[in-house]
Design brief:
With 425 residues, the chain is mainly alpha-helical. The protein is built from 16 helices and 2 strands.
Length: 425
């Protein structure tokens, strides 16, 4: 089968370019906001609590976000999210120029997380409207690879900027990145949303996607698709522990290993390199090994890396293990997202994506708060050893589910064919 080159797709190329630039700004925020909290309060628990607040509002948004992504113009929704985050993140350096207010960070993160979750859901659906189905894995790989490159340069630059001008300067750069994305999105077009044919009997949930029915439609598809059901259940466990991992990395480097902001930025940049390599290699690895071996191998690597990180007192070893952890998470993440896009009908993709993220992220805010509090109280070794053991248990459990299959997308029973809304009857 002939598959056209992604480079010939103008709209995807523009989308890819502006999102790569936007992710550089997000990488600044990844370092700047935890450092801002740490500078202001000196508390790892406060870092975890801020992450937990953001995670909780993301979960609430997941109940409605998928229905909105399936109901409204997806490009305009992406632009609205960028505009809102631009305004919200600009408020932090403006306020800090007058007097630091830690409460503002909670307000901004809570509201910004609403728009970030909505953007991320719509982003997944937009990729499916920009490329052919045969290009989805390659498109996701390219997006994740360039995003990871951004997370190589971004944290290193953020560390330098934060060290020289303070963390608020890095936050301001993040705000500007949303403006770049906003402008770029104005120059692309998405394919018309594919709807089910008129004679297909749909549930009320699919025809009137309100808060409850939209989530219910997505959750029902996940439940009736065995491989997605298994992924959702097991990722609920891993996300409980992984949401707060970046905060743990930063705290361990700063307090456990006594490193400065620049070193923190460089180590997180190396973590970005791991994600970049994973994203670039995912399409080839999945073609050669299949979905199951890739996902199981990636999660096994995460377990080993976390165990090694908790037991080391050397920054060089910590940097390598964080890089390997990021590689594993990146490989598992691209495989998982691509599988959902491949097996989910376009008219349900937003609701399925939001239901998936909402369910598997339901315990994540609590996990982030708990993990960072334990690390702040006990140090990194004990909590990270426990995390590694849970990750390994997830791998063992997954080996007894459809996740182990090389090509689970071929075993999913297709729904009735859909046609674009503007296609002739």
């Amino acid at each position: 089968m002939f598959v056209r080159s992604l480079w010939s797709n103008r709209d995807f190329t523009v989308f890819w370019a502006v999102q790569a630039l936007s992710e550089v700004g997000n990488a600044f925020s990844l370092v700047a906001l935890p450092l801002l909290v740490l500078h202001t309060t000196g508390s790892a628990a406060q870092m975890g609590l801020l992450t937990a607040v953001a995670g909780a509002t993301s979960l609430l948004t997941g109940l409605v976000g998928g229905a909105w992504a399936d109901r409204f113009d997806r490009r305009r929704l992406l632009m609205l999210c960028d505009a809102a985050r631009l305004v919200l993140y600009c408020a932090i350096p403006v306020c800090w120029a007058v007097t630091p207010q830690i409460w503002l960070l909670y307000v901004v993160m809570a509201l910004a997380s609403v728009f970030e979750m909505l953007f991320n859901i719509t982003y997944v659906t937009a990729v499916a409207n920009l490329v052919d189905k045969e290009q989805i894995v390659a498109a996701n790989g390219r997006l994740e690879a360039t995003n990871a490159i951004a997370y190589i340069a971004g944290p290193a630059l953020a560390g330098v900027v934060a060290g020289a001008f303070g963390p608020t300067a890095a936050v301001a750069i993040n705000a500007g990145s949303f403006g770049i994305s906003l402008v770029g999105l104005a120059f692309i077009r998405l394919r018309p949303l594919a709807r089910p044919p008129a004679d297909e009997v749909e549930s009320k949930a699919a025809q009137a996607p309100d808060r409850r029915s939209g989530f219910r439609a997505g959750a029902a598809f996940l439940w009736h698709t065995p491989v997605l059901r298994a992924l959702t259940a097991l990722l609920t466990v891993t996300t409980f522990l992984s949401l707060g991992m970046t905060d743990v990395f930063i705290y361990h480097l700063r307090h456990g290993l006594g490193q400065d902001e620049r070193t923190v930025g460089y180590v997180l940049a190396l973590a970005g390199l791991g994600t970049c390599v994973a994203a670039a290699a995912t399409a080839r690895l999945r073609r050669s090994w299949g979905f199951g071996p890739c996902w199981l191998g990636a999660m096994s690597l995460c377990s080993v890396a976390v165990l090694a990180l908790g037991g080391t007192g050397r920054v060089s070893v910590a940097a390598v293990t964080i890089c390997l952890y990021s590689f594993g998470m990146g490989l598992a993440g691209v495989c998982s997202m691509s599988l959902r896009q491949q097996v989910t009908p376009d008219h349900l993709l937003g609701r399925v994506t939001s239901a998936f993220w909402t369910i598997h992220g339901s315990l994540a805010p609590l996990g982030a708060a708990l993990l960072t509090a334990l690390v702040g109280r006990l140090g990194a070794r004990g909590p990270l050893t426990a995390v590694a053991a849970v990750f390994l248990a997830v791998v063992v459990a997954a080996a007894f589910t459809p996740i182990r299959q090389r090509h689970p997308e071929r075993t999913v029973a297709p729904l009735p064919q859909t046609r674009p809304t503007d296609a002739p009857p």
